[in-house]
Design a protein that fits this description.
about 40% helix, 4Fe4S_Fe_S_CS, single chain, two-stranded parallel ribbon, alpha+beta, about 10% strand, Leucine-rich Repeat Variant
Length: about 375
């Protein structure tokens, strides 16, 4: 906890806030804003309603901290301000997303996961920012967060003017769309607040709701994670419900559909951070090829990426679904047959489903 001293009382906090934003830019962040630790009653009410409806699925950590998620000062006692920071992630040289999605034999990986794990990148930069602030003010209370604790990061960013919540529930910015990561630095410094935007800019548009392959956006601003492709391919530990498998298409890790269709992403800016550059050609790789990786290859190629977190078994599970939805080419069928007797029950079950899909499509129509 930062103890306010006489020098603090005389400090030019506005100048410090300006310095913090400049230091953030020097560390590779594309924007930084300062918001209050009080997120307001609506944030807590919306969270409780979402949890009560079971929309979080198996993500028990969403409910584990109770009201602390909506009360930063209870999560980290002494917190006065939330510094919200944005870093663009769209790789500048990645194969066009629409082209990959249209290629039934290709494996689509959400653009944010093509490079280094963002948790590592942003946490490291947030720590460096805190250390830079410490040089200026002395010891102070802080804690960095990068999608790793019960923090309502979109709500915090909205209240500080970094953008507005789109109907897909992601943060939107008029000049930068939504292809960016968010990070927060909780602090006990009494920094001046940045104002929220006067209004949101989605209007009557429902493109994100309409395009969702599994209709997971059940109402404007509300996503039922149990239906979401990102949840199904990343967070869900067991079998993917059969009803959703044909809808997943060739999306093997995450889903960008709601962002790709959003008109505001005409203004999205590519990443300048080299850590987010495409690794191992994952922007343009076939389902059959990645399904053939051994566990050692998976670990070697994907170490340091967000994909590594789901593990080899779920990676194969996801690809099996993609292969089940792919054209019945010799390469696709050979890849599936090669894993019919996979050691994993989870993988075998999804391979069996995929082969059954192909068998059904090639079965002659009954005579009338």
């Amino acid at each position: 906890m930062h103890e306010v001293t006489q020098s603090d009382a005389e400090r030019d906090w506005a100048a410090l806030a300006a310095d913090i934003k400049r230091w953030a830019a020097e560390l590779g962040f594309d924007a930084a804003v300062i918001g209050d630790a009080d997120l307001g009653p609506a944030a807590e009410q919306n969270l409780q309603a979402w949890l009560a409806a079971g929309n979080h699925g198996e993500m028990d950590y969403m409910a584990a901290h109770g009201t602390k998620r909506a009360r930063p000062a209870e999560l980290v006692p002494g917190t006065r301000r939330l510094i919200s920071l944005r870093m663009n992630y769209r790789p500048p040289k990645a194969r066009d997303s629409e082209a990959v999605l249209a290629d039934g034999e290709a494996a689509f990986v959400s653009r944010y996961a093509l490079g280094r794990d963002y948790h590592k990148v942003l946490r490291n930069r947030l720590q460096k920012l805190a250390e830079r602030i410490e040089k200026a003010v002395g010891t102070f209370g802080y804690r960095p967060f990068v999608d790793s604790a019960p923090v309502m990061e979109v709500e915090a960013a909205v209240r500080a003017g970094l953008g507005w919540r789109g109907k897909h529930s992601l943060l939107l910015n008029r000049e930068h769309g939504s292809f960016f990561f968010l990070g927060e630095l909780f602090t006990d410094l009494p920094l001046p607040l940045d104002p929220p935007l006067p209004q949101e800019h989605c209007g009557r548009c429902t493109k994100c709701i309409d395009i969702c392959p599994t209709q997971a956006i059940v109402a404007p601003y509300r996503v039922d994670a149990r239906r979401c492709v990102s949840y199904l391919t990343i967070e869900l530990k067991g079998a993917i419900p059969v009803e959703f498998r044909p809808l997943i298409g060739n999306r093997v890790y995450g889903c960008d559909d709601c962002q790709l269709v959003c008109p505001w992403n005409r203004f999205a800016v590519d990443a300048t951070e080299s850590d987010f550059a495409v690794r191992n050609g994952l922007d343009d790789v076939s389902l059959a090829e990645v399904f053939g990786w051994t566990e050692a290859e998976f670990m070697q190629k994907l170490a340091g990426t967000a994909i590594y977190r789901i593990g080899y078994e779920r990676w194969l599970r996801n690809i099996a679904v993609g292969l089940g939805n792919a054209p019945g080419t010799p390469a696709v069928l050979a890849a599936l047959h090669a894993r019919r007797d996979d050691p994993s029950d989870l993988v075998r079950e999804h391979v069996a489903w995929a082969l059954a899909q192909h068998a059904e499509r090639t079965r002659p129509a009954p005579n009338k």
